[in-house]
Amino acid sequence: MKYFLQFVNILTTMYTLNAKFIDACSVGDIETVIALINKVDPSAGNNLAIRYASVNGHVKVVKILLDDPRVDPSDYNSKALQNASINGHVEIVRLLLEDGRVDPSDNNNFDIRWAREHGHMEIVDLLTEHMYRLDGPEYNKNVIV
C-alpha cells in the first residue's frame, strides 16, 4: 500500500506540474514555461500547450515549444495552425509553417477559409503561398515521379 500511495503522489505531482505548464503557455508566462518544460510532457493532451499558446498569440512560448522535439504542432489536425490563423496571429502562423510538420490544407483548407472569413488576409496569403511553393503540399500532389 505504501508504494501505491507513493505512486499516486507522483502521478498527482506530475498532473499538477503539467496543468501549471499548460496554464503558463496559455497566458504567456515565459519564466514558468522555461522552468517546467524539462519536468513535464509538453505534448500532453494532444499538444495542448502549443495549441493554447497559438490561440492566445504567445510567440515566444510557441518558439520555445517548437524547439522541443516532443512537441508536434501538427497534432490534432494542425490545430495550433488553425488557432493562430483564426485569431490573426501572423508571426505564429509563420513559425508553424517554418516547422514543416503542419499542413495548411488539412481539413479541406479550414485554416485558409477561416482566416479569410475573419478578415486575416495576410494569413490567407501566407498559407496559400506555403501550399503552392515548389516544395509545398499542393504543388507536389501533381508531380509525376
From TrEMBL:
<keyword id="KW-0677">Repeat</keyword>
<protein>
    <submittedName>
        <fullName>Uncharacterized protein</fullName>
    </submittedName>
</protein>
<dbReference type="InterPro" id="IPR002110">
    <property type="entry name" value="Ankyrin_rpt"/>
</dbReference>
<dbReference type="InterPro" id="IPR036770">
    <property type="entry name" value="Ankyrin_rpt-contain_sf"/>
</dbReference>
<dbReference type="Pfam" id="PF12796">
    <property type="entry name" value="Ank_2"/>
</dbReference>
<keyword id="KW-0040">ANK repeat</keyword>
